Structure formats: structure tokens, C-alpha cells
User: Fold this.
Amino acid sequence: MICSLPSPRFPRLRHELDVVVAGWRGVGAQARFFAQTLAAVGDAFTAYRGETLRMIAQMGLGAGALALIGGTVGIVGFLTLTAGSLVTIQGYSSLSDIGVEALTGFVSAYVNGRIVTPLTAVIALSATIGAGTTAQLGAMRINEEIDALEVMGIRSVAYLASTRVVAGVIVVIPLYCIAVWMSFMSARFATTVYYGQPTGIYDHYFSTFLQPTDILWSLFQAVLIGLVVMLVHTYYGFTASGGPAGVGEAVGRAVRTSLVVAVIVILFASLAIYGRTGNFHFSGG
Assistant:
């Protein structure tokens, strides 16, 4: 095999092969860690219930100074509020150019529920819950606290990774409900108050084109996003090395990876759910 033979005449080729092999080994290590974490989810509910509840409270409301602004709840709500307002501004301006600005309610119901809110939630979860998880686990790794837990007979993957994954998925559900509500309310406020459109017209087109199944599928995507984000961030935090600088590098890599993977998950989930037609019928009845 080429990979096993020394190549003094082709050092560049040998280096490229080593990079490829190391990359695939990293993928295998991540897959093994993800499998171990998911297999230990039962222990998070039984043996480590207290830690799971503590993680739920910390991720949802925050700790320390972060709790003053509502923690992740406040951050997700603010991001989706601004995103919903931007959808309204762009939608109303574009529709008014062709004289159908009354359909702004349709844009909010269709775009916010299916696209904008899931993508905004990805950024918020990765930047708050995910980054915090990676930093916590990374600090524990470089301080040898994880090794100390294993010496005491505590299953470190179940106690540290599985509990955080479970807490993240549970916290995502109410957070996403708040995010959807904030995006819809901000769009309605901007349309009816700022642009002066009658509330009856907005509510008519919004309720006509809002499909309840879209909200349920959007919530399903949010749960998948939460699972992916927490798995990626726990892995990079659990395997951090190199001191404080290594923790910062791990956080950066985790954020980049989770954003890319979560967007890919949204893409394929949307293709599987909505297909080519999008289950959309432009009619008033």
C-alpha cells in the first residue's frame, strides 16, 4: 500500500495522504463518540437525573450575568424578533412594487415558519448553548477534572455528554416555540403598525396560508438541530487539548462544524418533508 511505504522521494504526496487518513480517523472518532453518547442517554434519565435537571435550568435561563437578560431565552427571542421584522420589511417592499402588499401576511406565514426561524435558531443555539458546553467541557478536560471523574468510577461520557445532549434537546422545544411566536408577532407588528396595513387584511392572509403541519415539521427540524448541535459541541469540548488556547480553538471549530452540519440537516429535512412542490397551493380557499 502506498500509505504504509516511506516516500522520501515524494514528501508532499506522503503529507497529503497523512492529512486524508487523519481526517477519516477524526470522522471515525466522532462517530464513535456520538454512538457512545446516544447509547448512554438512558443513564442521563436514571443515574444522573440531578445533573440533567441542572443542565436544563442552566441552558434555558443561563447562569451568572447571563441570567440577567434571560439567558438563552432572551437571546433566541431577540434574534427571531429581528429576523421576523426583516422578513416583513423585505416582503412588504417587494410586494408593494407589484401592488400586492396585502400578501405580506402570506410571506410571514410561509417564510418565517419554514426557513427563517429554523436558520435563526441554529445560529442562536450554536452561539449560546453549544459554545458554552464546549467551553465547560474543554476547561474540565485541561484541568483533568474528567480524568478525576473516571477515577472515581463515574461514567464521564454519560455524566458530562449525554446529560448535556438530553438537556439541550429538551430546552430546544420551548425555546423554539418562543422563537416562532416572536417571529410571527414581530412580523405582524411591523406590518400593521409601521406600514399601517389593516390588521384584518394581514390576519386573513396569514391564517389562510399558515399550515399547522408546517409548524409541527419546523419543530421537528428544531429537535434535530438541537441534537446535532449538542453532539458536535460536546465532542469538541470533551476532546479539547492544548491548554486555554486549545479550549478557544475547540469552541471555534465546534461552532463552525455545528453551523455547517445543522444547515445541511435543515436542507435534507426540508427536501424530505416538502419535496419538490413544497405542499403549497396559492389559493384563497
